[in-house]
Write a structure and sequence with these properties.
Layout lengths: L3 E6 L3 H10 L5 E7 L3 H11 L11 H7 L2 E4 L6 H10 L3 E4 L7 H14 L3 E3 L7 H10 L7 E11 L14 H4 L3 H5 L1 H11 L2 E9 L10 E8 L4 E9 L7 E8 L3 E5 L6 E4 L12 E4 L1 H12 L5 H11 L7 H19 L5 E2 L2
Parallel strand pairs: 1-2, 1-3, 3-4, 4-5, 6-9
Antiparallel strand pairs: 6-10, 7-8, 7-14, 8-9, 10-11, 11-12, 12-13
Helix pairs in contact: 4-5, 5-12, 6-9, 6-10, 9-12
């Protein structure tokens, strides 16, 4: 018998990604799943649930009743009520990002899981990325110097096609926003984590595809408490050869640091201090397993956010990133949308 019974509400692309990680962990069994598409739920259960009994449940409440930990992987507007139900039942909760379509509901969800005292984690999975963890470590080193500017580009094809297999991200009532909320909630969180806390936000957003309420381009300027300036460009386009792509450059007084790729890098650095060329260690590059090993050595965070969640539930320890962490990203997203609505006005955040 497995130590942890896990249930899924929503059985699409993101749920499949999490389940693929979880089934590698012998402590975990995926014992219940519900999806509005019964055929998809059945395929998910056949692939990931233990053989010998049906894991498909007729409704979300039946999943919550049967498990120790709950994954909420539906469209965004359905997250709050499911999280509240899971927390009220005393279940550990992993919720996909973004938490909700509005800041107010994200606050409500955060208060609910904290009040219930349940283990909680959010799908801001790039907090576990070896590339971003190593970049953060390099920026915080004594020889890096203060951060001056961050250039952060995030682009992908409009996620209503291809590997996504769904169209709900084109519907404002379900998604609550476009590239800034649905995708770059990751980026706002990472910028705040690496060079924040952010104290000012200004933004411009737009929609070229003509999807009502769904921004497909955003430019956000962020100011850190210590003076770091960050420029985030987020785009949903039609170049289908480009799924999720991120590129980051960070300029400090004493170095230039760059990252390509969400997870395995490479991460580059250049701290050359002499016109005769770099001394040993002043320039470098890490990627793949070498990058993962370096990141593990400096912060101890697991590369696998799902195994980390399972361990937190079983050990009774705090999970990362938690709902309060995700709420901070929602504060920044809300400020960005308010700024855009006001023609790019500077919005103070605390």
């Amino acid at each position: 018998m497995s130590d942890l019974r896990v249930g899924f509400i929503g059985a699409g692309l993101i749920a499949t990604s999490h389940a693929t990680n979880l089934v590698r962990d012998r402590r975990v069994a995926i014992t219940a799943v519900h999806d509005l598409d019964p055929e998809r739920a059945g395929s998910f259960a056949e692939r990931f649930a233990p053989a010998g009994r049906s894991a498909v449940r007729p409704h979300a409440d039946a999943v919550i009743e049967d498990v120790d930990a709950l994954y909420v992987c539906t469209w965004t507007s359905a997250h709050p009520d499911l999280v509240l139900a899971g927390a009220e039942a005393g279940r550990a909760v992993f919720c996909e990002k973004p938490l909700a379509t509005t800041l107010a509901r994200a606050v409500e969800m955060t208060e609910a899981v904290e009040r219930a005292g349940v283990t909680n984690q959010v799908g801001l999975v790039l907090r576990h990325s070896p590339a971003f963890r190593q970049l953060r470590h390099l920026l915080r080193a004594d020889d890096a110097g203060p951060v001056m500017n961050v250039v952060f580009r995030d682009d992908q094809y409009l996620p209503t096609q291809g590997l996504y297999g769904s169209t709900w991200r084109a519907e404002w009532a379900k998604a609550g926003g476009g590239t800034l909320l649905e995708h770059s909630i990751h980026d706002l969180d990472l910028i705040d984590w690496m060079v924040g806390p952010v104290v000012e936000v200004s933004a411009r957003i737009g929609s070229v595809h003509g999807l009502e309420g769904i921004d497909d381009r955003a430019t956000v300027m962020l100011l850190g408490r210590d003076g770091a300036q960050a420029a985030l460009v987020s785009v949903w386009h039609d170049v289908v050869s480009r799924p999720s792509q991120r590129s980051v450059e960070v300029f400090t007084t004493k170095g230039v640091f760059s990252l390509e790729g969400d997870w395995r890098g490479p991460v580059h650095w250049d701290r050359t201090s002499s016109f005769s060329g770099p001394a040993e260690g002043e320039t470098g590059r890490l990627a793949g397993p070498e990058l993962a090993a370096a990141a593990d050595a400096v912060d101890g965070l697991a590369d696998d956010p799902d195994r980390a969640f399972a361990s937190a539930v079983l050990n009774g320890t705090a999970a990362h990133p938690s709902f309060p962490v995700a709420l901070r990203a929602h504060v920044l997203a809300d400020a960005a949308y308010r700024s855009a609505a006001a023609g790019g006005a500077v919005i103070a955040v605390s």
